[in-house]
Amino acid sequence: ASGILRKQKIIKYWVCDTPHERLTILYIKILDLLKHLPKHAADRKYTEQITNEKLDMVKAEPRC
User: Fold this and answer.
1) How many separate helices (H) and strands (E) can be counted in the chain?
2) What is the CA radius of gyration of the chain?
3) In principle, which of 7, 10, 37, 55 could form an S-S bond with 27, CB 3.0–4.6 Å?
4) Distance CA 59, CA 50 (A)
5) Interatomic CA distance for residues 39 and 56, integer angstroms
6) Which H or E element spans position 11?
């Protein structure tokens, strides 16, 4: 080999027990924060649109 010591990294993933609830809370918080931006600001307009679409997807997805 080339003499380079390589270290393996172990990555842990945490699984959320209530993903629908967590995502709903997160998206609502984002929408609340966006209310502080001017209504016609592009950042607010497009982020609101994307966040609302994602929130609708979470609401439409059946819970396990």
Assistant:
1) 2, 0
2) 19
3) 55
4) 14
5) 21
6) none
Q: In the 8-state DSSP scheme, what is residue 48?
A: H
Over pLDDT 90: what percentage of the chain?
70
Question: What's at 24, amino acid-wise?
Answer: T
B/e letters for 14-36, b = 16+ CB within 10 Å, e = fewer, are eeeeeeeeebeeebeebeeebee
pLDDT, averaged across the chain = 91
In whole angstroms, what is the distance from residue 52 CA to residue 44 CA?
A: 12
Tell me the residue type at 15.
V
**Global confidence as pTM:** 0.74
Cα atoms found within 13 Å of the Cα of residue 14, Cβ hemisphere only:
4
CB 31 within 8 A of CB 51: yes
